[in-house]
Amino acid sequence: MSLHADVSATFSADGAESFHVDAEFEVERGESLVILGPSGSGKTLLLETVAGFHPHDGPVTLDGQRVNDTPPEKRDFGFVFQDYALFPHMTVRENVDFGSRYHDDTRDPDELLAELGVGDLTDRYPPTLSGGEQQRVALARALAVRPEVMLLDEPLAALDVPTRQSLRDDLADVLADATAVYVTHNRTTARALADRIAVMNDGQVVQIGTPDEIFHRPESPMVARFTGSNVIDLDDAPSIRSALDVSTDGIVTIRPESVEFGDSGDVRATVDRIVREDATNRVTFVVDDVTVEAFAERAPAVGDEVWLTFPADALHVCRTYAASTSV
Amino acid sequence: MSLHADVSATFSADGAESFHVDAEFEVERGESLVILGPSGSGKTLLLETVAGFHPHDGPVTLDGQRVNDTPPEKRDFGFVFQDYALFPHMTVRENVDFGSRYHDDTRDPDELLAELGVGDLTDRYPPTLSGGEQQRVALARALAVRPEVMLLDEPLAALDVPTRQSLRDDLADVLADATAVYVTHNRTTARALADRIAVMNDGQVVQIGTPDEIFHRPESPMVARFTGSNVIDLDDAPSIRSALDVSTDGIVTIRPESVEFGDSGDVRATVDRIVREDATNRVTFVVDDVTVEAFAERAPAVGDEVWLTFPADALHVCRTYAASTSV
Amino acid sequence: HGDSFVVAAATLGSILMVALGLPLFLFVARQQPSIIVEKALNPDVHQMLYLGVYGPLLAAIVSLVFGVPLAHLLSKGFAGQQLVESLVDLPLVVPHSVAGILILFGFGKGGAFPNVTVLGSMVGMVLAMTFVSAPYAVNATREAFESINDRLEYASRIHGASRWDTFRRVTAPLAVRGMVTGGVLAWARAVSEFGAVAVVAYSVSFFYPPAGGEVTTQHAPVFVYGTYLQGGLAESGAVAFILLGVSALIFLIIR
Amino acid sequence: HGDSFVVAAATLGSILMVALGLPLFLFVARQQPSIIVEKALNPDVHQMLYLGVYGPLLAAIVSLVFGVPLAHLLSKGFAGQQLVESLVDLPLVVPHSVAGILILFGFGKGGAFPNVTVLGSMVGMVLAMTFVSAPYAVNATREAFESINDRLEYASRIHGASRWDTFRRVTAPLAVRGMVTGGVLAWARAVSEFGAVAVVAYSVSFFYPPAGGEVTTQHAPVFVYGTYLQGGLAESGAVAFILLGVSALIFLIIR
């Protein structure tokens, strides 16, 4: 089933400024769309609006059928919440079995829980479970009703790193063939789960595309920064401009894994900082007034002078910010 | 100033089981100790107890002086909270200047805020700021009183990934020469900031050592898993045992970045999963009944059969679980 | 010194505790057992106790039946909510004797329902009690509804439950303690109501099972006041003692 | 259909709104202006209004002075807290006429302070009002204290402020709205108190500035009740109307 949403809604909390969400996206059958954005960008409100929890303008359609006036219980969605939202007064099995009264063909709770690795918890109550266990149960509850579309709202955000990685792997399996909309602020999660990514900022979808497009060809500095690219304003980095022979005032982006460094290259730079990450070292260089990041398994020393190379095929000019450029 | 704590305290929330913290650690002058552990392991309670917010048994000493009976305001600590805890009825400047009435030699709020990149916010009120801005102000408030020891409770946990990385870099500078105790559940943050790491689990310090010791020579499977190592129970992986010629039933650990794979090697394995991370790909292999992770810039395809190599100098036998071994 | 703060607070707080606790203590200490026994055996007192439990029970039930739906609506919010909130809280700020007069204007002679006798009737007493106790039922239940995470109801809806089913399977079970609290508060408030009842129904006739017919007595606080006016402090103290004892007992049983 | 749930809830809720709102509406609609004018010009009513504002003000101030420290202690928790909580809530569950009798036992003839005249005195009236209104001051203030994130106080302490300074610079400013609410609630509760005041101090003598000396009148709800007994519904309704008008005016001014 495909889902199309073009919603516009205004939300006002007590005393706070009202917040406007105005976003359109489409998800094809079997596709996982990840909505990626900073906190406060309206991702969760958008997802809840699609689910039917908030009134809104603009159509939400499922396979071309407009569902604006369909209450949530008739929309055939599954929903996984950041804070699990398990019913505390029901056992794990009762939680997973919750939807069976309203759906003809539901999955067996015990089997489903066993598949998700929590088969031993069926008679426990949610408040006695760890965060990771609760989220697996919540996932089972949503899957049990065999929903046409799965909606997931930052399901990993409240979890520890190891728990998160293990559940993310299972989510990847679950979502492989499902139609799903997945909200997160974590770019690694987005890349791991998405067929396509919609980047959201300030209530609006600012770019939508494949992970490769989003990560390698960001259309704005915001998208580039949020996906971890180096964002280089050439005005602040004359030595990069002259090295690259770029005939524009624009902003270029390049992924840190594409930046090379060594004893020779395009631009001279100073090592400013080294952070050890799981697989490698994240090295920050200073060139003129800008910083550039790269990865290196064997890190140089802070203060070293090196030469950076920006491979031409990895460089990207931000379209929005430089209408006419030639790299 | 050095800090030594050997505290024991029991906490009981309404209706919940009581929780016991029993932990000892020491921080030398100028050293940053990171307390790393899963959520619910008692890290925050330990830090708050050291600060003097909770009654406890066992001494807390500063430079050998016992401070158990000293109220928090006389202990000369700075504290940065996960939820910022800025005074909402005071401007940013007033927040940072809060401690100046009680300390002789405080830092100028405007200068300090400018150094931390939020010099333009001095007259704003905290609720109008973003999370990253609030945390910079909170950091300034703590630094303003020139504390002997900085205590930091997951200051990055509530922030977006890009905001987190940028503040982490600044924290690294701030903590470079400071005496600090830093609580986190994020292993990358731990490795980036720690001179030494204490791993906490279930209210107790289970291992303490340099980042290298903690990450490469974990003393228990819990520490290994939580720091991202592969944990291999040789009972479940006979082909690894025979390849390594290990004469023990023990558990061995190896960091994923040390696992090599290719057309030849020690053990035959199947590619099960590939997750794209910032710098590289995280590849999961299946060998017998266990999974092994490794990193690869050029990922194989899922389902490929490859050969894994476990370099002998990277293999570590969990001491606690295998008293007599020879690798 | 840091603890001076706690000492100062404790000192000021203790003075208030004395003002609240000493009357109860001396009230108990100065009772005369002989008068209590006499009153405890008095059939009038028995009738008063029966009415004092039974009438408030009716009021509490009425308050819950109509108050829980209203509390649910208020917890979700709607247009004109502030006006409704003001009306709900009205009985809390109106002097109780004035509340009685309001009820007589609204439902007494020449009021909305000419066929219903309110003045001096059981209906009038329960109406007066409901008027002053309904806000407690509404507010306690509303608080319980509001403390439920919205997303639990979202989860129920999205996985197939209608509004009705969501209320029955999720909202109500999670708010049931709040409803019980609201009912108990409404009941306690009705038990203790003096002013409105004294104006609307000073004496009430009602069916009293042990007598097998109608009897006439006063609602407990009115009865105590009447005893005070006619018999003085010692006698009314004994009646009040029995009333407090029975109330405390019922409270313990409910808990 | 999904909306049947809302319709049902709204229907039941509306019945309660009618029960609460209709009396007020008919009370206003059925007033006779001539009687209101007559009462509004009556010096006895002026004295009553003066006492009805002034007495409760004293009670509210006393409630806050001693109640805020107690509320702060309660918000932090201490051993024996449950006993103190029960005592604080005692006046909420005791019938008001019984509350009056408790006060006479505690502070009246033969009570704790033989030199203080409570029966029929200003002191007695304020004491009775404080007894019934202090719980509101304590509970509202306590709620305000408890809604403050603990870590704000931790942050204050760790960066150098003592308990006193923390209270002065952080806790009190953040709880000030709760304190004001508590004071207003206590004042409103004292204004509306009927039973306890009727028992302890039916009529009160006090210094009345416009007369330049002592006058004797009743606390407003008692005055309304007396008017009802002597003059009937129309006259007491007019007095009640004036009383509600003045109360509403003061409420609006405070807001």
Index terms:
heterotetramer, A: 327 residues, alpha+beta, Rossmann fold, OB fold (Dihydrolipoamide Acetyltransferase, E2P), six-stranded mixed β-sheet, globular, disordered C terminus, C: 255 residues, mainly alpha, 10 helices
Taken as a percent bin, the fraction of beta residues of chain A is: 25-35%
Greatest interface and its participating residue counts:
C-D, 86 and 86 residues
Q: Oligomeric form of this entry? A: heterotetramer
What's the story with the biggest beta sheet of chain C? 2 strands, antiparallel
> Fraction of residues of chain C in helices?
over 70%
Overall mean confidence score, pLDDT of chain A:
90
Strand order of the largest sheet of chain A: 6-7-8-3-9-10
Q: What is the domain tally of chain A?
A: 2
Domain ABC transporter (chains A, B): 2-227
Protein name (chains A, B): Molybdate/tungstate import ATP-binding protein WtpC
Catalytic activity (chains A, B): tungstate(in) + ATP + H2O = tungstate(out) + ADP + phosphate + H(+)
EC number (chains A, B): 7.3.2.6
Q: What's the arrangement of secondary structure elements?
A:
The complex is a heterotetramer, with 2 copies of chain A (327 residues) and 2 copies of chain C (255 residues).
Chain A: E1 3-11, E2 19-27, E3 32-36, H1 43-51, E4 60-62, E5 65-66, E6 77-80, H2 92-96, H3 109-115, H4 131-144, E7 149-153, H5 161-175, E8 179-184, H6 187-193, E9 196-201, E10 204-209, H7 211-216, H8 221-226, E11 230-233, H9 238-244, E12 251-254, E13 260-262, E14 267-276, E15 281-287, E16 290-296, E17 305-309, E18 316-317
Parallel strand pairs in A: 3-8, 3-9, 6-7, 7-8
Antiparallel strand pairs in A: 1-2, 1-4, 4-5, 9-10, 11-12, 12-18, 13-17, 14-15, 14-17, 15-16
Chain C: H1 3-29, H2 33-40, H3 43-76, H4 81-93, H5 96-107, H6 122-146, H7 150-158, H8 163-192, H9 195-200, E1 204-208, E2 213-217, H10 220-254
